[in-house]
Amino acid sequence: MNAPAAPAGARASDRRSRANAFAARVRRDFPALQQEVGGKPLVYLDNAASTQKPDAVIDAIAHYYRHDHANVHRGMHELARRATEAYEGARRKVARFLGAADPAEVVWTRGTTEAINLVASAWSHTFLGEGDEIVLSTQEHHSNLVPWQLAAARAGARLRYLELDDEGRLLLDRLPELLSPRTRMVALSHVSNALGTVNPVAEIAKQVHAAGALLLVDGAQGAPHLPIDVATLGCDFYAASGHKMCGPTGIGALWGRRELLEQMEPYQGGGEMISVVEREYSTWAEVPHKFEAGTPNVAGAVGMGAAADYLTGIGHAALAEHERTVLEYALDRLAAIDGIRLFGPPAAERCGVVSFLLDHAHAHDVATILDADGVAVRAGHHCAQLVMKHFGVPATSRASFYLYNDTEDVDRLIEGLDRVKAIFG
Asked: If DSSP codes are grouped into helix, strand and coil, which group holds residue 339?
C-alpha cells in the first residue's frame, strides 16, 4: 500500500532544506562569499548585475598567467602553442555550453553589450536599409536598445516595439501585427534583467522566421540560469556575458549562424582578422577570427570556459530546482510585507530576480540600509528605463538570486527590510 502523501507544507520545507544544503556546498567554492560586511556575513543578492567567481575560475585564470601566457596564433614557440590551445579550447567549451555544433560560430567579445553592437553594426551595414524595420520590446536592457537605435538612424530604418502586460510579460499576441515584409531583425531578451521574466524564445523564433526576419537574443540573463541550446531555441544570434555566469568581466560570446557571420563585414579592423593586406584593400580571415581584431582577452576566454565547465558540472536541472525554491520562498516572504509593491510575473514564469518598492522609502535608501546589514542588492532603473516607465516608477530595489543563495539569505533580506520600515515609518 502506498504511503500517504506528505502535506504541502512539509514538502515545501523539505525543498527548502535541500536548497539550503545545496547552497552551503556551493558557497565553499566562492571565496568572495567568505567575508563580512558591516560586521555580518555577506549576503550577496546582486547577481543580475554580476555573479561571484568560484575557485575553479580564479585558478584557471591564474594558471594561464603563471604558466601559459603568450599571444595566440601564429607563434611557433611552446607558450604560444599553449596559449592558443587554451584560447580555442575555451571557445569549444562555450560552444558546447550554448549548444552550438560548430565552435567557429562563437565569436569572443567583451560581453553581451559588444556582441549586440557587433551585430547591430556589422549585420546592419550590409542588410539594413532605408524603410526597413527592427522590432524590439519595452522589456529590453539598454544594451539591446541603443545599438539598434544607432543602426536605425544610420540606415534610415524604423524601430517598432512590442509592449508589456501589467506583470511584465511580452504581449506576444501583438507580435504578428508588428512583423511586416519590411521587418529585418527582431531583438529580444531571453530573460528580463529588471523583472526576471523568461520569454518563450522558440515560439517567438518561429513567428519571426515565418515573416522572413532574423532573431537576436540577449542572453545575458538567460545563459547563467537556463539550459541553452541555440538549435532548439531557433534564434539566429545569441549573446552572452562571462561575468553573469561565474566567469570574469571583460569577456563574452556571440553565437551566430555561420552563413550569417560569413555574409557580414568585419566589426573592427586590425591584426588577426585579415587574410591578405595590400596597399588598397585587404581580405578577411575565416569566421570567427575576422571579428576578433587585435590581441584578444585570452585569460578572460579561459575564465569563461572554466565557468561553463563549472556550471555544467553543477547541472542546469539542479540549478533550476534550487533557484525556483529560493525564488518562491522570497516571493512569499516579500509579499507578506505591508506596503510593498512587487514587479514581474509569478515564480513559474521568471528566473531569480525580484524588483520591489517599499512605501515611503526610496529604492536607493533601501539599498543603503541593507548594505549596512551586509545585504547587497541593486537599486535604480537597472539599465531598463522603458520598463520603469511602463510601471510608472523611477527606480526599484532588486534582489537577484543564484546558485549560492539560500532561504537564510532571504530571511536576512526580510530582516533588513523590516529595519527600513522602522526607519521610514
From this structure: coil
